[in-house]
Write a structure and sequence with these properties.
Order of helices and strands: HHHHHHHHH
Number of strands: 0
Shape: globular
Helix content: 55-70%
Number of helices: 9
Distance between the termini: 27 Å
Largest sheet: none
Structural class: mainly alpha
Length: 178
């Protein structure tokens, strides 16, 4: 993980919300948010500004951990999130009373990460792998993107193919967000 301190501040910024909730609040793909949380990648400047605007946190604090967490005024109270938290507490207490561990219920709003390695081995074609990845996320892939990432595909090692697919996906995610 590149930036574990940033990830901790990001989690705190969104009060421990799930990655899916963070993605919805920011209006960005879940996979992009997953990169921030799981790989410690820093968001693009426009996303950092969006985080600051949505949550009221100071960019200085978010990026460097310096200064006050909130820039100026505290963010407005998010009544929906407050109610969601209280309802969650009530459900947890009721489930505990009937002795069903909450952990056994599983995750509802998150998909397991797409298995790029298996897809590369299975299809041997970058277009097909990207189509599968976008389909897995419930999205349509644009058909007019360039293949600059895949020039020399036949000579790539498996690791290079996986890296090229991930790079192309990252670029497509960023360009589709605009």
């Amino acid at each position: 993980m590149d930036n574990p301190d940033f990830v901790l501040r990001l989690i705190r910024t969104f009060d421990g919300a799930t990655m899916a909730v963070v993605a919805r609040r920011l209006g960005i793909p879940h996979a992009t948010v997953r990169n921030y949380y799981k790989e410690g990648r820093l968001p693009a400047p426009d996303v950092l500004i969006k985080i600051a605007n949505v949550t009221g946190v100071s960019l200085n604090w978010l990026l460097l951990g310096r200064g006050e967490m909130f820039a100026g005024e505290l963010p407005p109270l998010d009544l929906g999130r407050l109610l969601e938290g209280k309802i969650g507490e009530i459900v947890d207490r009721r489930l505990a009373a009937i002795s069903i561990p909450v952990d056994e219920l599983g995750a509802i709003d998150t998909l397991p990460e797409f298995d790029v390695e298996s897809a590369v081995r299975r299809y041997h074609d970058p277009q097909t792998v990207l189509n599968e990845w976008f389909t897995y996320e419930g999205r349509n892939i644009p058909h007019d993107y360039g293949v600059v990432f895949f020039r020399g595909w036949g000579s790539f090692t498996e690791e290079e193919k996986i890296a090229a697919i991930r790079d192309a996906k990252r670029v497509l995610d960023r360009s589709l967000d605009r």
